[in-house]
Every structure is written in C-alpha cells, then in structure tokens.
Design brief:
The complex is a heterodimer of chains A (393) and B (297). Chain A has twelve helices and 18 strands. With 393 residues, chain A is of the alpha+beta class. The radius of gyration of chain A is 24 Å and the shape is globular. Chain B has one domain. In chain B, β1 and β2 form a beta hairpin. The longest helix of chain B has 34 residues. Classes of the chains: A alpha+beta (393), B mainly alpha (297). At the A-B interface, α2, α3, β2, β3 and β4 of A face α3 and α11 of B.
C-alpha cells in the first residue's frame, strides 16, 4: 500500500507532480492545436490578395470572439449597471468595449444567423434575402424587419451587398482590402494558426503618419481563402490591439435549415418594423449629407443634417398597436432605465465620453475620433482630435 | 452512528479473487456508514429541505408577479422564460442557488467530513479500523459528493414539480428563440442539472482539503464558501482576465450552453476539464495532508 511505503515528506511531492502535470496538460493542449496545422506553401502579397478577392463566400458556422479596447471609459465608469459576466444579459452595446462571443452561421447566399452570447442569454439576428428578425432571450422580444417593396430590394441588393448588423471577419476584411490601393503598404507576417486552421497573415501599414491606425493584420485561411481574423493596432500602442475580431472555431459546411430559418416562439412579443426603401431620388440626395476631406487614412467625413436626438435614443417610439413600446433595444433601453431618464442618460453618456472643445464636443478613442459640433455637424475620422477641429473650421 | 461495523472477516478461504471480495465488502460498508452519517445528520436534512423550498418560493413569487412586466424586466435570470414554461423553473432555481446556497451545501458536507470528526474526537477511532487512510479519505469525498448531488437533485426535482404545477410544461423555447419539443427540452435541462452537479465536484475536493487542515469544522465550512465567493469575484475583474479560464468557478454558468440552438460543447468540455484539474491538484493535496498528518483527536 502506497501510504506505508512513501515517507510522509515525500507524499507532498505527489500534489506538486500532479500540479505540474495539470499545467503541462493545459500547455500541451494549446501547443497541440497549433502543431496540428499544416505548413502552407510560400505565397506573395499579390497572389494572396487575388485569391481572397476571387474566392467564393463559404457556407460556414463558427464561433467568433470580438475584443475591443478603444480606450473609451468602461461602462462601469459611466455609472451604468454592469454586473457579473455570468449574470449580464447579451446586449449589442457590449460591442463597444470588452470581449464578446458570437456564433455565426451562413449559407454564403442570403440566409444567415448571428448570435451575440452571454452565459445565460442571447441576442440573435436571423436574416434572409428580404426579411430579418432580432430576438432577445432576456425579454423574449422579437423584431421583424421587412421592406415595403421586396422586389425592388432584390434589384438594389444586386448592386450592393447589404451590410450585416453585427461585424463578421469576412465583411471586415473586404472593407480593409478596399482601402489597400489608396494609401497602405502591404506585407506578409509569418504563417499562423487561427481556429485550428493554417492561415496567411496579411499586414496593412498606413503610409500616413497622421492617422491613429498603426497596423492591421488579416489572417486568411490558406485553403478556403476565407478571412479568419482581423486585428487592428493603434499607432499609440504597438503591444495591445484596439480591435480583435476572429474565429475561435470554424466549420465549412452549409448549416441546417433549422439554424437558418426563423420561427417565432409562442408568447413572444413581436414588433413589426417595415423599413421604407428610399426612392431613387432619395438615394441620390440622401437627407444626411456626407462630405469628405483628406485622402486615404487621413480622410475626415463630415455629416450634416443628422437627427442626433434619434441616434441617441431620445425618441418616443411606439409600436404598431400605438402603445408605448417597452422593447426597444436602443442604448438607454438596454440598461433597463425608466424612459423618463433616457434624454438625461443619453446626455450624461455623451458628457462622460466626450470632452468639450471650442464649438462642440470631442470623443476620442485609440482608433477613431468624433467631433459633434454645436451647429449640428458631425466629423468622423481615424485621425487625432486636433485634425478634426482644424477640419471643422 | 459508528464505523465499527466495517471490519470484515474472511469467510471463505480459496482463490485470490474470493479473498479480495470481503475487502470490497468492507469498503462498501465504510461508504454506507459514511453516507448514513452525512445523509442522516439532522441539520443536513433540514438544510436540503430548505434548499428544496427555494424553487417553490421562486415559482410562487413569479406566479404572483407574472402580469407585472417590470418584475422580471432586464433580468437575465431566465425568470421571464420560467413564467411561460415550468421547465425553466428548474434552470432558474439552480441559477439562483449556484452563487451561494450550493457552495454552502458543499461546505456543510466537507466541513464535517474530516474537521468535524477531528473536533468530535471520533477521527482517531475511525483510523483504527483496518482500512487505509487513503480509502477513508476517498470514502469521505464520495459521501460528501453524494450529499451535494442529492441537494442539486432536490432543487431540480422541486423546480420541475413547482414549475409543472404553477406554469405547466410546454415545448421549450431555447435562448436563440428556436422551439424544440418538450422531450428534447427536458433532455437539455437534464444536461444543465448534471453539468451543475459536476461543476461542484472541484469545490467538494477543495473543501475536503481545507477540512484536513483544521480541527474546527466551522473554519473549514467558511473557508470553502470563501473559496467559491472569491473565485467568483476574481472572475468578474476584467484586469485579471488572464487567469479567468483557470478559476474554479469560471465555467459554472456554462450550463447555459445546453439551452443554445447548437449546444456549445467547447465551453462544456473546458468546464469539465477545469474541474478535473482542480480535483487532481486538491485531491492529491488532501491525500498528502490526510495520510501524513498526526491525528490525535
């Protein structure tokens, strides 16, 4: 029997060995997942970009982890309720800061489901070609989005792909690559492993020295050319990325119909939202007018005529039955605040996030600056605040 | 209650296998005696009965306030779901008990297991039995775990009964809004119950280790609860995110994965692996302490 053959002192060696084995086990697990990946053939920047642009969208399902560290004050600092992770409900505003986990499913055509997860709740967005549903498990509220003219939407969507409500690595990578020709240097980092897949790493470095963006890396699946991870570093901090958006697991297969179709659960509160399509006239002269100054990464967008109050949730929404709606997932509503406090909260949120400058208020983060002028203009750019203030003059 | 009946005589001489059989019987008797001790203790019974009232009280509270949307507004506790489907009362009850009451259950069982016997002066008599200390320790761990699992099962069953009576059992709406048949929903909720039960195993072993360190049962109980509470607090501090995946309680709330459209087996297997890690480390620590300590009381 061991208890009689091992000396008393030596017995304490057993937990030490056990602890070492456990630590070794965890370490080996992460090493193994990295070693599993195959070595990819050498490639060049030009080949890689061509492959990515030419690749068909892949039907896939996977888990996406999004981490934002934009240097904005945390929600706790703003005095908003932000309890334990396990108890906090999944809210779209979580994407402003911290780490969020999402599950995505897409058939690569027009059906998809994206779910923002917390430990015990979910916020889902299910969409097909002409309709979309959002569902919050916290209050079981369904929003059903339809357009007033589906036929015309099909025409329009042929011209431009519809943006999704939540960010995906694929969409983000395309946005990044669209910037390529203008003002960036492209290079390759050593091959890496993302979600257990061997991946090339494309690096974009802005040529401009004004912009807040220091470097962007895009990890690209070496077999399917699907972007797996996008990482954005600010110029101010080369160690910690400001945004990381990447798969932690991915499966290339068409998801089942059960996943991609929506069926409203019994007892859920459904709000119908009909989105009026803009007429062709409106498309050419949209109500908020956007003008840009500067080029490439130094570009500053100036928006005028923006309904700021509506943007901040200072509206009095009513649902189709005319009753005051209690299920609007806007910024203030998500924190379960009484609606009377909403304008006040929105104002204090703006106050806390921004600093007063001559003629307006400035919101700065590590990647983006926003200047809200008292005259109604909003200036946005990936540049320091001074540049926006200068542009506003 | 005593352990004196666990000494066993060899009835039949013969093949080696037969000679081992009585020893297994001795282990069985030791375990049976330990289980009678833990489950038969009046204060443990009262505690489990009280725990069984939690789902009933929660259900009645939800039943009375079900027409008042502000009562459950913004609450992620699956309470809103519970008012529409009694099945969810099981999950909501476990959710309510997980932060404090279930760790307290673990503490109650573990504090008594070794420290309690030491304080009562019965531990040295137990060790006089012709059974190795390792076997005594394992028996105590199993008995404490059985008590904890009984407590979890009582909460789950009472939750199901109260939920069925108050709200009825219907097809289950998952967190993603998808409706699955009642049978599949029940299987998923069973997964939640089993996961919660298994998630407490690590704390049982930690509690047992603490129990071997002291002769004051209350100290062991308090320390066990403190371990779980401190772990939860550390888990909520963003600055410590590097150590979060290794905290004992980090995956406790992973039971929600069973209620997603596609069960998140990744999180669940991480949670189970973490429990195994804590069990291995603190199990061997408890073994080293218990088999090497001078036990005089």
């Amino acid at each position: 029997m061991t208890s009689t053959t091992i000396s008393r002192r030596a017995r304490w060696g057993v937990p030490a060995i056990a602890a070492a084995a456990v630590i070794g086990g965890f370490a080996a697990q992460s090493l193994l997942s990295a070693a599993n990946a195959d070595e990819l053939p050498e490639t060049t920047v030009a080949e890689l970009v061509t492959h990515v642009m030419a690749a068909d969208p892949q039907p896939l399902s996977g888990t996406v982890v999004y981490t934002a560290d934009l240097g904005l004050p945390s929600l706790a600092d703003l005095g908003l309720p932000n309890g334990l992770d396990a108890i906090a409900p999944a809210r779209p505003t979580d994407l402003l800061a911290g780490t969020s986990t999402m599950r995505v499913w897409t058939d690569a055509a027009d059906r998809s489901r994206i779910t923002l997860q917390s430990a015990t709740s979910e916020f889902s967005v299910v969409s097909n070609a002409t309709e979309a549903w959002t569902y919050s498990s916290v209050d079981q509220a369904v929003k059903h989005y339809t357009v007033d003219d589906p036929a015309r939407l099909a025409d329009l969507s042929k011209q431009a792909p519809a943006p999704t409500d939540l960010p995906t690595p694929g969409g983000a990578a395309l946005t990044v690559l669209a910037q390529v020709g203008q003002s960036s240097t492209l290079s390759l980092d050593p091959q890496t492993t993302v979600a257990g897949r061997s991946a090339y790493q494309l690096v974009l470095t802005p040529k401009s020295t004004t912009t807040l963006v220091g470097r962007i890396t895009v990890a690209i699946d070496g077999k399917t050319w699907n972007p797996l991870k996008v990482t954005v570093w600010p110029r101010s901090d080369t160690q910690n990325p400001a945004i990381e958006l990447g798969f932690t697991d991915v499966t290339y297969a068409t998801p089942s119909d059960q996943v991609l179709t929506w069926s409203t659960p019994a007892g859920a509160h459904v709000e119908e939202v009909v989105v009026p399509l803009p007429t062709n006239d409106q498309l050419t002269s949209a109500a908020p007018t956007i003008t840009t100054t500067g080029t490439g990464w130094d570009q500053v967008a100036t928006v005028t005529g923006l309904p700021l109050d509506g943007l901040l949730g200072i509206t009095d929404p009513t649902d189709s039955s005319g009753k005051p709606d209690t299920h609007v997932p806007d910024l203030a509503r998500d924190y379960a605040l009484p609606s009377d406090d909403v304008p006040q909260i929105a104002q204090s949120l703006l106050d806390a996030l921004s600093t007063p400058v001559d003629g307006g208020r400035l919101v700065t983060s590590s990647l983006l600056s926003v200047l809200v002028m008292d005259d109604g203009r909003v200036l946005v750019g990936a540049v320091p605040g001074d540049v926006l203030i200068a542009a506003a003059r | 209650m005593s352990h004196t009946d666990s000494a066993e005589t060899v009835r039949t001489a013969g093949a080696g296998a037969e000679r081992w059989a009585p020893r297994r019987g001795a282990t069985g008797r030791l375990l049976a005696a330990e289980l009678r001790l833990v489950l038969g203790r009046r204060r443990n019974q009262v505690f489990v009965a009280g725990l069984g009232l939690v789902p009933v009280l929660l259900g009645v509270m939800l039943y009375l306030t079900r027409d008042d949307p502000s009562a459950s507004e913004g609450s992620p506790l699956l309470l809103a779901q519970a008012t529409q489907n009694g099945v969810f009362l099981v999950v909501a009850s476990l959710f309510m008990c997980l932060p404090f009451l279930l760790p307290l259950t673990v503490a109650l069982a573990c504090g008594d297991a070794v420290a309690g016997e030491a304080s009562a002066g019965t531990l040295r008599y137990l060790l006089v039995l012709p059974v190795g200390r390792t076997k005594v320790l394992v028996t105590k761990a199993v008995a404490a775990l059985v008590f904890v699992e009984v407590a979890v099962a009582v909460v789950a069953v009472m939750g199901l009964v109260a939920g069925a009576v108050l709200f009825g059992l219907h097809d289950v709406v998952l967190l993603s809004g998808t409706t699955v048949p009642l049978a599949e929903g029940m299987a998923r909720v069973l997964g939640v119950v089993v996961y919660v039960g298994v998630s407490l195993t690590g704390l049982v072993v930690v509690g047992l280790f603490v129990s071997t360190l002291t002769e004051v049962p209350v100290a062991a109980m308090v320390a066990t609860v403190v371990v779980s509470v401190v772990s939860t607090i550390l888990d909520s501090l963003p600055a410590l995110s590097a150590i979060h995946p290794y905290l004992l309680t980090h995956y406790w709330y992973g039971f929600g994965e069973f209620l997603r459209l596609e069960v998140g087996w990744g999180v669940i297997s991480s949670g189970l692996a973490l429990q195994v890690a804590w069990i291995v480390v603190f199990g061997t620590l408890a073994w080293a302490r218990f088999t090497s300590a001078d036990i005089s009381s």
